Amino acid sequence: MRLYHSPTTPFGRKVVVALQETGQAADVEIVAAIGGPLDPGSLPVAQNPLGKIPALERDDGPALYDSRVICRYLDARAGGRLYPPEPRLWEVLTLEATADGILDAAILMLYESRLRPEERRYEAWTEAQWAKIARALDSLETRWIDHLGGPIDMGQIAAACALSYLDFRHGQRDWRSGRPRLAAWHEGFARRASMVATEPQG
Ligand SMILES: N[C@@H](CCC(=O)N[C@@H](CS)C(=O)NCC(=O)O)C(=O)O
Hints:
alpha+beta
């Protein structure tokens, strides 16, 4: 299998962490892909019409895309450790969606500051994206904190990747402020070998 990926994508990082946590890293070749909405560059548009990474090319079926689909597929292939049975499954999927939503907003903020010409930037829109992130972080600190402390699952991996991405791209926002339990959880989870090996570069 071939995974289209870059060293900075947090969605791709979810997949690589899942590969490592399920003992499948050697089954996947990493293909470097770089680009963005204005110029797809080497993004895998043939594999994913949306032109986004990660995308997973399989030997025995069509390419898969969207990190949630790829992670679910890889976990099923390994025997299903990261997505537990119902009813906990619904919690895991909702936590993963919360983390992915943080990332969607964080990436839109990055594109706004990097891709939009300065005179056309819309500060209120950027702050509205951060407001979504702040609400989601508050829910991680309250509703989700007990779940985060349970056995490892894909929701936790997604949350850890999202928090690390906030450090990487939006460190000045100080997401830890007022969220001591989430900060402590992240500090511990970030020490896992799979997280250390996939620290964003660039
Ligand atoms: N929902 C998608 C989001 C993937 C995504 O936004 N990837 C970014 C890189 S982190 C991308 O490829 N952006 C290029 C673009 O939007 O054109 C997933 O979970 O895989």
